[in-house]
Design brief:
Length: about 260
């Protein structure tokens, strides 16, 4: 019958496996994988291949390992052999990731993201990069996380390292978000919004500048909307009620509490 696939094996003089290769069909024009090992029997490199529906090569990737078989580099290649992207890995002594850095292309001039971890394996910082269609840097953001891996600050920068905006988050002891604040620029004098949450995770209040506040009931429905003037005084507010079918009606009042028709 016809050959579906086959494997080849090579060995060191000490009997340890040196290389194994897998192929589809009867030839070597459609490899499945090539795996290389050191004389101690530890894998040092693995190359895998992916194909299109017409059996043409789609892309292939290579994984490199250290002496303990921890992956230290992943490289994805296009069908023509050019590098699409690659990732570098660093580890703590306990085996958890210390840092993962991802890059576009073959150099380090176009990072995708750089993520740092604590020894428990939780993210503590992540830098992500966004590019224009011509490949030039558009902006980047830096995320800071607490010991539980929850984001507590995210800062957006322009190409000149100036802060565009940043977001602060607070959490309850149960891990649910308690409050989220966003500001324009590097200070707190230009707030964008402040959202407060109940301990079960539902929104309690949302304030947008300049200037509006939305209040919610326990079911998450809007019960009050307030619009403010630039000086902080109330321009108007709307109180909402719901019937048994969930239909909403609103009553509008001016800043002095007078009904507005």
């Amino acid at each position: 019958g016809s050959i579906d696939n086959y494997r080849l094996y090579e060995y060191y003089d000490n009997g340890e496996l040196k290389q194994s290769e897998g192929y589809y069909g009867s030839g070597i024009d459609k490899p499945d994988y090539i795996s290389k090992y050191n004389e101690a029997g530890m894998r040092v490199e693995y190359t895998g291949y992916e194909y299109n529906s017409d059996d043409s090569l789609k892309y292939y990737y290579k994984r490199n390992y250290d002496d303990t078989e921890q992956e230290i580099k992943y490289t994805k290649y296009n069908a023509d052999g050019s590098i699409d992207n690659y990732r570098l890995y660093e580890y703590y002594d306990n085996g958890n990731w210390k840092q993962v850095a991802s890059y576009y292309g073959s150099g380090t001039d176009r990072p995708d993201y750089i993520e740092k971890y604590n020894e428990n394996g939780r993210t503590k910082e992540r830098i992500g990069y966004v590019y224009n269609s011509d490949g030039s840097l558009k902006l980047y953001n830096v995320g800071i996380y607490n010991n539980q891996g929850n984001p507590i600050k995210n800062t957006l920068y322009d190409i000149n390292d100036s802060i565009i905006s940043y977001t602060l988050r607070e959490y309850y002891d149960n891990g649910k978000i308690k409050q989220e604040e966003e500001y324009y620029g590097s200070g707190t004098d230009r707030p964008h919004y402040i959202t407060k949450y109940k301990e079960e995770g539902k929104r309690e209040e949302e304030t947008k500048y300049y200037y509006e506040t939305t209040n919610y009931n326990d079911e998450g429905y809007t019960i009050k909307y307030t619009k403010y003037n630039a000086d902080g005084s109330i321009e108007y507010y709307i109180l909402y009620e719901y019937d048994t079918d969930g239909n909403r009606t609103g009553t509008k009042y001016d800043g002095n509490g007078n009904l507005i028709d």
